[in-house]
Amino acid sequence: MPFTKNQIITLEIKSISNDGNGVAHKDGQAVFVPLTAPGDIAEVRIVKPMKSYAFGRVERLLAPGPDRIRQDCPVAGPCGGCGLRHIRYEAECAAKTQFVRDAFARIGKLDVPVREVLAAPAADRYRNKVQLPVGTDENGHIVTGFFAGRSHRIVACADCRLQPEWMNQLAARACALLEENGITAYNEETHTGRVRHLYMRQGWHSGQRLLCFVVNGNGLPNEAEICATLQKEFALTTILVNRNSERTNVILGRRTRTVLGPGVIEDTLAGVPLRMGVHEFYQVNTPAAETLYAKAREYAGLQETDFLLDLYCGMGTIGLSMLADCRRLVGVEVVPQAVDGAKQTAARLGLDTDRADFRCQDAGAAAAQLAAEGARPDVIVVDPPRKGCDEAALTAIAEMAPRTVVMVSCNAATAARDTKWLTEHGYTAVEVQPVDLFPRTRHVETVVLLSHKKADSYIHIDVEFGEGEGKIPVDSIAKRAEAYKPKEKVTYKMIKEYIEAKYGFKVHTAYIAEVKRNLGLPMYDAPNAVEELKQPRKHPTPEKVEAIKDALRYFAVI
Prior knowledge:
alpha/beta, CATH 2.40.50.140, Rossmann fold, CATH 2.40.50.1070, seven-stranded mixed β-sheet, 14 helices, 22 strands, globular
């Protein structure tokens, strides 16, 4: 029997879901309860009942589980950033290991060893970058904080324990100076007000500090005085102003100018010297990222004569950290500022383009071009965004057939999906290593080692390309590659399997299509579609709509 709203039931939490909620079962139905730990026994109020599952909240904790600890942040609940701050860090690491194992077993359908997560060197004060939205509290004072889950409501936070103390102190001081100078916070509903975000960055090893005001306009009133005060009080290396006057959720605008200092800060990551402004991607947890890069380097197993291809290379750090082990590096990244940074780093290291070449291209397009040119890298490293590798990149990897592929991913679901595709196209998944770059949150990084399958025997064939009898036209290669392109990576089947595994019910393909259509996602005409329906179309229930949206978020479709 389905639960009813506001019903109170007693539950024992058995596990943690990949979105950080505690999971309990009663009468064959799953109940997801935020801020609970395995072993907790609690009275839970049902806040959102569905047909075969429900969401609840703790009304009264009857008995804490062995891993529960007291939260040390007063806004951890409404903020939602630290979804696992209520459990011991050891238990958090165990849960993250299980997140990754579940993804590779359920989504990838792979029997591959998934190692215990490599814990972060520190669970607090590890962030080297923060982007704080600026708003006003109920008394009209300017505050910074974080957006509450699935909203743009700012939860004020005076001391976020994930970032260094100086960042929290600077944010408070900046808010006070803005008020003193009559400067207003941005209101996204009315598109009025001046300051949208405070962006801070720190060189973890160098100690250099950067501050950037993101403003709705050209600058700040009394800008020079405000910036000089903050630079003196917080030993800032540089201060920038970024203009963003667009009605958008994107934080940074296109134009940034330097107010004080050189406009960049310097640091090292895995021994690679870097210079950073505000647009360059840089792992937010430097010590944990160095653990991650060391594991990727180990998996790469490079030899001194090898050619290394680094796709989705960002500032080139992963590839450059491995360059001492190989002969040549080519890095590919679509963000121009990141590519410029990688080239500048290579130049400072005295590397010419024959040794380290960085290209500003879409990863898939660049990989396809390299494959067409006959490039044969010995090892390929990929570090894609949350949505994973695109079809062109995967196809080109298979065409180039390196002996080793090392996949670094911030999304275990898409990593499992892409790993599965590669195992169907010539590779064996050897090992998966989770790495915790984001302690106290539900996020976990994953490194996958794939090895090319070796043939049992070889046949030597001489092929002559060109026009004429007995020759193979060059354009046939492109046609063949097109014929073997993989299907759309996030399939309806994958979505249906995810929902059935998590919620215990099935959804029709038509329901998934309807939700995608309502969300404005790309749709494709079915070859067997009919003009008229024989009977009125049924629509998904609210619970199935929510389950489908959850799956789309899980696979990074939305």
